[in-house]
Design goal:
Length: 185
């Protein structure tokens, strides 16, 4: 089943206009630093860094050697916080970017130590705030477990439009894109 999830993609990766930045050394160094700020130093030290151009093509900004990949995203956008993904998390990301449900048998992990935000905690296809909604869903620094089954079986709150984001909760519950959010600070 092919799913079109622009809202999810916007929520997780909006603002990845790096085609120019990838060609400018000072800009490139700043984007790499920004991307690596999403994870602890023990992870970011060996992580690869990639960005996406306007056409959705990944551009390698730095090679890695530990199986983690970090994305800087565009800090000028409301949803542009950096993130780092392990190997399975990157597969989850690639599936979502292609409009397909992620492999339900793989659990991916992601750090977002700069925090994050989404348009909706319920609807991965949301591309703007819903009627009556007063703010983005703002999430403090956290890790994510990217697997709908694990999220569902976690027992943490799910299905809330405005969750308490300072405690573990499920984002996008009851969808193939459900993730378990675990605040770390």
């Amino acid at each position: 089943m092919k799913l079109i999830c622009w809202g999810l993609l916007a929520s997780l990766w909006l603002g990845t206009n790096f085609a120019q930045a990838a060609n400018q050394p000072s800009s490139r160094a700043a984007e790499i630093r920004r991307a690596l700020s999403a994870a602890p130093a023990s992870i970011s030290a060996g992580a690869a860094v990639v960005a996406m151009d306007a056409g959705g093509k990944m551009i390698e900004l730095r090679q890695g050697n530990n199986g983690w990949t970090c994305l800087p995203r565009d800090e000028g956008t409301p949803l542009g916080q950096p993130l780092c993904l392990d190997k399975n998390g990157l597969q989850w990301y690639v599936a979502a970017m292609s409009g397909h449900a992620p492999d339900p048998n793989l659990a991916g992990y992601s750090y977002m130590l700069k925090g994050g935000s989404v348009w909706s905690n319920l609807d991965p296809s949301a591309t703007k705030m819903q009627p009556g909604q007063k703010h983005f869903v703002l999430v403090p620094p956290h890790i994510m477990i990217l697997n709908a089954r694990i999220a569902k079986e976690s027992g943490f709150p799910s299905g809330m439009a405005d969750p308490n984001t300072h405690k573990p909760f499920v984002m996008f519950g009851d969808t193939p894109f459900a993730v378990l959010i675990i605040p770390v600070m």
